[in-house]
Description:
Blueprint: H1 3-12, H2 17-24, H3 28-36, H4 43-55, H5 59-66
Helix pairs in contact: 1-4, 2-3
Amino acid sequence: MTSAELDYMLQQLDLDHHSAAVFFKVNDRTCRRWLQGVHDIPESVAMVLHLMLRHGFTPEEVKRWNKV
């Protein structure tokens, strides 16, 4: 996944970099670096975002699954 693809997907999910960092439980700086192309985006992050967009899951729904 490229930083541009990450940015697009976060926009589609209405997540800014801070919200994405909270969602993926990483530091704000890490998420900013993903978006700047400084650090590689983990494959697990890409997979979760692709699944969320493909199946219409919101971040809130996914967070609830973690509490079940």
